[in-house]
Amino acid sequence: MTSRSARNGCSSCPAFGDMVYQLGNPTACRYPSPVFLQRTTYLAGVDELVSHRENLACLSEESSRHLLAQPSWFRIPALPEQARAIIDTHYDCDHAIATGHVVACPRR
């Protein structure tokens, strides 16, 4: 069986959502992946969903030491202003640690 990541040209990329656990940065949020934030970059109306509001709230969750992003899938600069502002408030992506396919922005 071919993983979704392998089909996208990245055979060593983790599936979305599991990297937060593998790197010891778990979340208590309902969705371990910011899929509803990512979808706002190209689908109208996603920002009106309850799931989108839950994803936004997770950005402020204090138990996460880092914001983990996979730039090939989740591009922070492409997010709507509201999400970028929350990220800028809580995480220092100017001093992110880039490792392979993942960027880790430390909490401020």
Task: Note down, in words, how this protein is organized.
- This protein has a three-stranded antiparallel beta sheet, with no helix packed on it.
- It is α+β, with helices and mostly antiparallel strands.
- The protein is globular and about 30 Å long.
- 30% of the residues lie in helices and 11% in strands.
Task: Give a quick set of tags describing it.
alpha+beta, 108 residues, 11% strand, 3 strands, three-stranded antiparallel sheet, 5 helices, 30% helix
Overall body shape:
globular
What's the gyration radius in Å? 13 Å
Output the helix-strand order.
HHHHEHEE
Main sheet: strands, sense, barrel? 3 strands, antiparallel
In terms of structural class, how would the helical and strand content be classed? alpha+beta
Summarize the structure.
The chain is an alpha+beta fold and 108 residues long.
How does the SSE layout of this entry go?
Layout: H1 4-7, H2 19-22, H3 35-39, H4 50-58, E1 66-69, H5 81-90, E2 97-99, E3 102-106
Antiparallel strand pairs: 1-3, 2-3
